[in-house]
Amino acid sequence: MTLIPIKLMPRLRGGTSLWIGGGLVGLAVFVAIAAPLIARTDPVMDANLMNAEIPPGWEFPFGTDAQGRDIYSRIVYGARISLTVGVGSQILNSLIGVSLGLTAGYWGGWWDDFVTALTNLMLAIPSLIFALAIMAILGPGLSSLLMALGLTAWSYSCRIARAQVLSLKSQGYIQAARILGYGDLRIMFTQVLPNILGPLIVIATLGMGTAILSEAALSFLGLGIRPPFPSWGSMLSEARDQINTVPWLSIFPGVAIFLTVLGLNLLGDGLRDILDPQSTTRRS
Amino acid sequence: MTADSLLRVEDLRIALAGDRTIYNAVEEVSFEIRRGEAFGLVGESGCGKSITALAVMGLLKRPLSLGGGKILLDGEEIQNASAARMRMLRGSRIGMIFQEPMTALNPLSPVGRQIAEMFVLHQNAGWSEAMDRAEEALRQVRVPSPGRRVKDYPHQLSGGMRQRVMIAIALACSPELLIADEPTTALDVTVQAEIIDLMAELCAAKGTAILMISHDLGLVANMCKRVAVMYAGRIVEAQPAEAIFAKPQHPYTQGLVDSLPRLGERSRRGQQRLREIAGVVPSIQAYPAGCRFNPRCPRASDVCLTTAPAITPLPAANSIEALVRCHHHG
Amino acid sequence: MLLVLARRLANVVPTLVAVIALVFLLFSVLPGSFISGMGEDGRTTIDPAVMERMRKEMGLDDPLPERFAKYIAHTAVGDLGKSFRTREPVTYLIGQRIWPSLKLMFAAMAFAIVVGVTLGFLAALRPGSLVDTVSMVAAISGLSLSQFWFGLMLMYLFALTLQWLPSFGYGDGGIMHLILPAIALGVGPMALLARTTRAAVLDVLNADFVRTARSKGMSERRVVEWHVLRNALVLVITIIGLQFGSLMGQAVVVEKLFAWPGVGSLLIDSVFQRDMPAVQGCILLIVLFFLAINTLVDIAYVAIDPRIRYGR
After folding, report:
1. Using a CB-CB distance cutoff of 8 angstroms, which residues of chain A are in contact with residue C202?
2. How far is it, in rounded angstroms, from Cα C123 to Cα C194?
3. FRET label pair with B250: which of B119, B126, B177, C238, CA 20 to 30 Å apart?
């Protein structure tokens, strides 16, 4: 499989995408942090059958579900899960990818061959299928999700880290640093890491969007966050059977996912224009 | 205008749209090429010679555009010609060769087909006839075993062979004018001479005039009858080729001549070093006031810092116009 | 040319073996076996006696290397074991599901290619135009959608409200049942293809050889037909191949949503029924298919790009 760097930049004029994306992501972060303040009811406990299946209106902006829970409040709390999964899994992916990539490029030899083989293996398995297999083994839950999504998408950061080391090596920087008596770790952290920080941030931002989508998909399948906890995916999983009678249950969680991921994608594109003008990052 | 004028460029201006301002990448450029004549345009990279050629072809791309002036081909004004008219002229009456033979050919198309396109486009040939003629064209540019080479892809050919293919394409329809933009810069020195000779010979045979663009004054002077020197978007001197070497008038031309190695000179002048011109070409955003060459000029005086020099005609030799743009020429 | 192909095929085999090993290890070595691990969700309890019998029957108590050797040997001859649930061979179970899955996947990809490549192309030919803006906004939106949610919305709109199309199921296998799931599944790759095609075409339009083509006096239409299309295609095909990976992942969810009787819903059902051989079989098949697609992409490359054909 050949990976060629391609510019994926439909430039919206003058960094508009950065601002819209930043705004949407900022909103999602604010909602997640301030959830207890802006939610109207407890997302799990405040069931009230008297209020069951009320359509969106003044009292319940996004309506209520069959148990009379306020959908708005559940979505507000759902932001916490989505963002936790997004951020957590990307931290894990970056850590794994960067340490494997840096060491593989730096030390070379059998370790490099091994890491390259591992990367190719990861690319050969569709990542959602991989995550699904891990969820099947670990069982549902937030920590399993972090593992499943954090262990399966590090190949991009690994490739970029490795390529950067190799290019610095060929330019003699690393040898020069060695002659100056720098240790291996010091060279990796002070010479290589700053050079790939930009692309890494872009990858992580775009990866967060993918992780949030995967969380929703896994929860929808019943393998991620289980009801009654309000993840956007699990809300959709519950809502599916009632799409004909209570459609608002399905609409609002989906819109929340869409806006958050759209924000992350726009932000990622905008950041790429700034941080990675030669565009080494791409997704597939 | 002389009777046998083929291409006449008058007061050409090429605009470069910057973020806020519009710059003149080329201005006050005028020259004339006669039928069958080889004309050289010389200057350092960034002086505007390549975009002058693209302007003649009508191939300027944003942020560049034609800012003013006239381009006359065989008496016809083509600077505002319709896209359809320009397509008819390009290829059939003006051919062009580019600098990079590596990238100027489509990597996914056999070279024979890329030549044959010319016959299909301009001479209503069918593909099989066009392919036969492409083979003949390859033979003309002395590609060995052309019958096999027509099916080759560009990456299978050496740089010199690719440039021969480019020549075959440019001359396929026997145009009246061939524009060669640094045609040998990317090639090995040994191949350069072959390519230049081939171009000169084929053009002479077909009666094709050449607009030769190069940074290499020696190369241009060898091939062309007349040479114009460009600096920072303007023509600073134009003279017959021999006169450029014998009596360079502009200090910049003087510098170019001095920086050339000359056979036999070493024994006469002793171990003299080649001289370079100090400094670099100013960027378009930072053209100096007055004469644009003044920061690098050994003859610069106060007037050079404030007033742009006007064109001074030089005494014509063999009825060929000559000019210089300098306060202290000679 | 044959040599190049052989070399590419030789690359596939180790990957395949590694995947088989990985799938085996995942389900045998990680915390608890698959059987006990799934018992912890509290929804079902398994009779310890039954579990003991199953472990014996599956040979789960044998030493690991021995089990691995057996697994490899069986897999190599196409024996994926028997389903815990139906007692039928896994290959038989999967065999019944392959055709619907393939149909859905290729329909989705066809939709993605036709719409995505067209949009990307039109956008690149007129950068900054209305077409460009609209298709790129559509593309980034498509990339941000949850495909199953989009499917749910399509289902609500076209099946339940407008009643133009059936809402779910395979029906008689006809095209009407295929449309909604294929669009839901294809929207992601469609969006990505629109973006990559646009970028690829813009790249090629700026290439030197396109300037040469223009200097020949070609019309823009001919320039695109003769010189841009093929070169852009090389770039687009890579993305198409890679997109099959995410397509197969998403297919699991979309199949589940539309109750589509494919390999994906078999996988999910098997996960919930703790049918380990079936789960392993489905995952192996999906990976094998992905590898096959990417090998095909490599072959397509060789056919299109002479620089690879002659082994540069």
Report:
1. 7
2. 8
3. B177
User: How is chain C split into domains, by residue range?
Assistant: 16-90, 99-304
Tell me which chain A residue has its CA closest to the CA of residue C257: A240
- Which chain C residues contact residue B156 at CB under 8 A? 310
Contacts of A159 (CB under 8 A, 6+ apart): A3, A101, A119
| CB of A260 closer than 8 Å to CB of A79 | yes
d(CA C167, CA C158): 8
Q: Do the chains contact at C231 and B59, CB–CB below 8 Å?
A: no
Instruction: Delimit the domains of chain A by residue range.
Output: 15-283
Note whether B169 contacts C212, CB cutoff 8 Å.
yes
Q: Taking CB atoms and an 8 Å limit, are C192 and A6 in contact across chains?
A: no
Distance CA B250, CA B255 (A): 9
Calculate how close chain B gets to C249, using CA atoms only, in Å: 34
**Contact state of C38 with A139 under an 8 Å Cβ cutoff:** yes
Query: CATH number of the domain at A15-283, out of 1.10.3720.10, 1.10.357.20, 3.90.980.10, 3.40.50.300?
Result: 1.10.3720.10
Strand partners, B24: B15
CB distance from B59 to chain C under 8 Å?
A: yes
Q: Residue A152: CB partners within 8 Å, gap ≥ 6?
A: A122, A127, A130, A131, A134
Nearest residue on chain A to C238, alpha-carbon basis: A2
Q: Which residues in chain A are closer than 8 Å to C250, comparing Cβ atoms? A: 128, 217
Q: Is B105 in contact with C216 (Cβ distance < 8 A)?
A: no
Name the token pair of A258: 């869409």
Instruction: Check if the beta carbon of residue A4 is closer than 8 Å to that of residue C204.
Output: no
First CA to last CA distance, chain C: 11
Residue C285 · residue C263 · CB < 8 Å:
yes
Going residue by residue through chain C, which has 312 residues, state the pLDDT in tens, using 9 for 90 and above.
677 677 777 777 888 888 888 888 877 755 444 454 444 444 455 566 766 776 666 666 677 777 778 778 787 777 777 777 777 888 888 888 889 999 999 999 999 999 999 999 999 988 888 888 888 888 989 989 988 899 888 888 887 788 787 777 777 777 778 888 999 999 999 999 999 899 889 889 988 999 999 999 898 889 998 999 888 888 888 788 878 877 888 899 999 888 889 899 999 888 888 788 888 889 888 888 888 888 888 888 878 887 776 544
**Cross-chain residue pair B106–C217, CB shorter than 8 Å:** no
User: Cβ contacts (< 8 Å) between A217 and chain C: which residues?
Assistant: 146-148, 249-250, 253
Peptide bond into B63 cis (omega under 30): yes
C234 contacts B153? CB cut-off 8 A: no
> In this complex, is the C-beta atom of A30 within 8 Å of any C-beta atom belonging to chain C?
no
Burial class of residue B112 (count of CB atoms within 10 Å of its CB; 0-12, 13-18, 19+): buried
Q: In this complex, do C140 and A262 lie within 8 Å of one another by their Cβ atoms?
A: yes
> The tokens 């293809």 sit on which residue?
C193
Give the single-character DSSP code of A49.
Answer: G
Point out which residues pair with B16 in neighbouring strands.
B23, B64
Structural contact between residues A86 and A240, judged by C-beta atoms closer than 8 angstroms: no
Report the largest interatomic distance among the alpha carbons of chain B, rounded to a whole angstrom.
67
Right CATH for C99-304 from 3.40.50.300, 1.10.3720.10, 1.10.357.10, 3.40.630.30 = 1.10.3720.10
Q: Cβ–Cβ contacts within 10 Å for residue C194, how many?
A: 29
